[in-house]
């Protein structure tokens, strides 16, 4: 899987609750890693350093 595909898939997944009108901001959705990406604080569930290290300019 290349970085472009990974970034597109992650972006789609994180934005989907907002698009479906389940919330106003992706990082407020409790089952999303968006909050960890926005704040940089890991919650023990969304372990994202591997993603931010892999995709340049995250």
Itemize the secondary structure elements and their pairings.
Blueprint: H1 3-19, H2 34-39, H3 49-54
Describe it:
The protein has 58 residues and is an all-alpha fold. The chain has one domain (3-54). It is 50% helix and 0% strand. It has 3 helices and no strands. The protein has helices spanning 3-19, 34-39, 49-54. The radius of gyration is 11 Å and the shape is flat. It starts with a helix and ends with a helix. The mean pLDDT is 79.
**Which percent range describes the beta-strand content?**
under 5%
Helix/strand/pairing class, anyone? mainly alpha
The H/E string reads HHH
- Gyration radius, rounded: 11 Å
Highlighted features:
50% helix; mainly alpha
Structure at a glance:
The protein is an all-alpha fold. It has one domain. It has 3 helices and no strands.
């Amino acid at each position: 899987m290349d970085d472009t595909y990974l970034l597109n898939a992650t972006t789609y997944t994180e934005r989907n609750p907002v698009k479906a009108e389940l919330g106003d901001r992706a990082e407020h959705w409790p089952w999303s890693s968006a909050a960890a990406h926005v704040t940089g604080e890991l919650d023990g569930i969304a372990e994202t350093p591997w993603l931010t290290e892999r995709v340049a300019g995250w």
